[in-house]
């Protein structure tokens, strides 16, 4: 079969060389293993099958342990058993071993459950791959498409001819289309057309990559400027609140960041030697210290007044209690007289 295929391939290639001057032969290939790993339905079913295989292996291990126990028991008790009992037990062990081999063949043999279920699992995906390859070949005018994982040896394959990702996208698109609205379907088709165009033109793909990088850089710059502006607004709001309350608020890291960002954008960055405090800044700092000192003195006066009032209240309560007790004692003395 392989020889016939190679002969057919050679004859077809020779026939196409007549048109080689007007149009070159377009060749592509797929990697079936890569495609299967990237199809969600196949991956999920494969995991389920692996769980089954693991369960079968555990059952085989249990049977092996049972046979080992029978052999050990026979070895220990052989001297105490009759010839008939020994033969009976040996026959039982042989039966168990034969049964174990049959079970192993049933589950993991060439025609076992694992191979059969794997073929059943793979077949639908292979059909999808075949249909996707046909559609891609017709739409993009491919002359040959090979399977990299087949029996035909591929000694070299340039990555630009690999259409495995296109096949995966085609399968994913087919499953998505049934769940989309008309508007979403139209948008998806436009997106697919752009992806296909990039696949067809490597130079366009490189150009698109550069455009995406520039776009990301612009978005990052805009985000940084917005963050700097927001930090500046927050610092201004904090300064207004401090002025309103009559307290001095130290310059926060956020405000510093906002100032630094603004200076970087305008090119007005000052060094440590040139950034000296002005007379206006010194006066403002002195006024802020004075307001802070006045507020602290006022708070101290209020606290002293509260303490004095509390002491007066306590003394008044004590005097009332003392007068009440004296009155009660006098009334008690009057009754005794």
Structural commentary:
With 337 residues, the chain is mainly α. Among the domains are: 32-199, no CATH class; 208-268. It is built from ten helices and two strands, in the order αβααααβααααα. It has helices at residues 2-16, 32-37, 40-77, 83-108, 113-140, 164-177, 182-200, 202-245, 253-266, 279-336; strands at residues 27-30, 144-147. It has a two-stranded parallel sheet with strand order 1-2. It is flat and about 125 Å long. 5% of the residues are buried. Residues 39-106 form a coiled coil. Residues 178-204, 224-337 are annotated as: Disordered. This is Periplasmic chaperone for outer membrane proteins Skp. Belongs to the Skp family. Residues 184-194, 224-244, 269-279, 294-337 have a biased composition (Basic and acidic residues).
In summary, what is this structure?
The protein is an all-alpha fold and about 325 residues long. Helix content is about 80%, strand content about 0%.
Q: In terms of topology, how is this protein built?
A:
Elements lengths: L1 H15 L10 E4 L1 H6 L2 H38 L5 H26 L4 H28 L3 E4 L16 H14 L4 H19 L1 H44 L7 H14 L12 H58 L1
Parallel strand pairs: 1-2
Helix pairs in contact: 3-4, 3-5, 5-6, 7-8, 8-9
Protein name: Periplasmic chaperone for outer membrane proteins Skp
InterPro entries: Chaperone_Skp, Skp_dom_sf
GO molecular function, one term: unfolded protein binding
Q: Determine the number of helices (DSSP H or I, runs of at least 4 residues).
A: 10
Q: Gap between N and C termini, in Å? A: 141 Å
**Residue share in helices?**
over 70%
Q: What is the global morphology?
A: flat
Strand proportion, as a percent range, falls in: under 5%
Which structural class do you get from the secondary structure elements?
mainly alpha
What is the averaged pLDDT score?
77
| Major sheet attributes | 2 strands, parallel
The H/E string reads HEHHHHEHHHHH
Rg over CA atoms, rounded to whole Å, is 45 Å
Classify the oligomer: single chain
Instruction: Count every beta strand, where a strand is a DSSP E run of 2 or more residues.
Output: 2
* Low-confidence segments: 13-21, 264-275
Spatially, the strands of the biggest sheet line up as 1-2
């Amino acid at each position: 079969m392989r020889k016939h295929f190679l002969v057919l391939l050679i004859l077809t290639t020779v026939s196409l060389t007549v048109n080689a001057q007007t149009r070159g032969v377009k060749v592509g290939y797929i990697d079936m293993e890569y495609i299967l790993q990237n199809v969600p339905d196949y991956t999920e079913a494969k995991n389920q099958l692996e769980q089954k295989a693991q369960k079968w292996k555990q059952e085989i291990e249990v049977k092996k342990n049972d046979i080992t126990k029978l052999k050990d028991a026979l070895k220990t008790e052989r001297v105490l058993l009759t010839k008939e009992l020994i033969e009976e037990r040996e026959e039982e062990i042989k039966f168990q071993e034969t049964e174990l081999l049959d079970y192993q063949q049933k589950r993991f043999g060439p025609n076992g459950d694992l191979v059969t279920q794997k073929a059943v699992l793979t077949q639908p995906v292979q059909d999808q791959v075949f249909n996707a390859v046909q559609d891609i070949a017709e739409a993009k005018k491919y002359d040959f498409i090979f399977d990299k994982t087949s029996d035909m040896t591929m000694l070299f394959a340039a990555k630009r001819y690999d259409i495995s990702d296109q096949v995966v996208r085609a399968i994913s698109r087919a499953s998505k289309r049934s769940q989309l609205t008309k508007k979403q379907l139209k948008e998806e088709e436009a997106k697919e057309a752009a992806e296909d165009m990039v696949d067809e033109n490597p130079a366009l793909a490189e150009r698109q990559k550069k455009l995406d990088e520039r776009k990301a850089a612009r978005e990052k710059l805009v985000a940084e400027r917005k963050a700097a502006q927001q930090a500046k607004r927050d610092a201004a709001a904090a300064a207004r609140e401090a002025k309103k309350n009559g307290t001095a608020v130290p310059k926060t890291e956020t405000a510093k960041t906002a100032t630094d960002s603004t200076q970087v954008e305008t090119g007005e960055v000052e060094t440590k030697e040139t950034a000296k405090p002005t007379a206006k800044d010194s006066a403002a700092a002195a006024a802020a210290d004075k307001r802070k000192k006045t507020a602290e003195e006022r708070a101290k006066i209020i606290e002293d007044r509260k303490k004095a009032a509390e002491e007066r209240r306590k003394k008044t309560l004590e005097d009332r209690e003392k007068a009440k007790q004296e009155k009660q004692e006098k009334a008690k003395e009057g009754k005794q007289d």
